[in-house]
Amino acid sequence: MLTYLGTALPRFTSPAARLLALQCALRTDACGQVRLPAGLLRGMRLRGSGELWRELAHAGWLQLPDFRALPLQLRLLDAAVLDQAPGRRARCRAAHWALHPAPLALPAAAPALRLTALVLAAHPPSQAEHGTEMDILASLCGHSPQQTGDILDRLVTTGTLEAWHLNRETDEVCWQLRQPQARTHACGRTRWRPDRAAFKEASST
């Protein structure tokens, strides 16, 4: 669904509008009708953000709802959203997970950080690392590659990511999730110790 939104919405649609569009796309019925409870919008810290709805309406993706009615009801205008797999039950589970995308949930962070963390969490790992092309990652996050790199740096600074780097020859971005801290038992043996030297941060590239 993130890939679908990356093509259905204008490239620089704001992260907050993309988060809102994702919930709408995952919660729509077979006729493109969506009901969003007020509690959901409050939890996303997006209640009363009329500019986000206007942003999506201007893109021709949805019809502006009646903001006086609760729960909020609206209609999606892009028929292609109904063709996205999987089915409705799996979409409902995905909608819930997208609000708390373990292991990178950032409910109190800015929308740009939350969306990037969600996109990263949606990528399965290849052994110890996760990765994709920078252009793809930037498109899903609604940023330029430079802005995406800056946000990845912030996720490292906040401890959400362990590190990330960009292969400038292949344009592939790889990142390493934050690992649990080493724990020492009473016997003094360490259960886990990260090999930080094996992974370089982007600032060294």
Short summary:
The chain has helices spanning 2-8, 15-27, 38-43, 50-58, 88-99, 111-121, 134-141, 145-157; strands spanning 33-36, 62-63, 72-76, 130-133, 161-167, 172-177. The protein has eight helices and six strands, in the order ααβααββααβααββ.
Overview of this structure, please?
The chain is of the alpha+beta class and 205 residues long. The chain folds into two domains: 2-99; 111-204, Arc Repressor Mutant, subunit A. The chain contains eight helices and six strands. The strands form two sheets. It has a three-stranded antiparallel sheet with strand order 1-3-2. The protein has a three-stranded antiparallel sheet with strand order 4-6-5. Helix 2 crosses helix 6. It is globular and about 50 Å long. Residues 182-205 have low confidence and may be disordered.
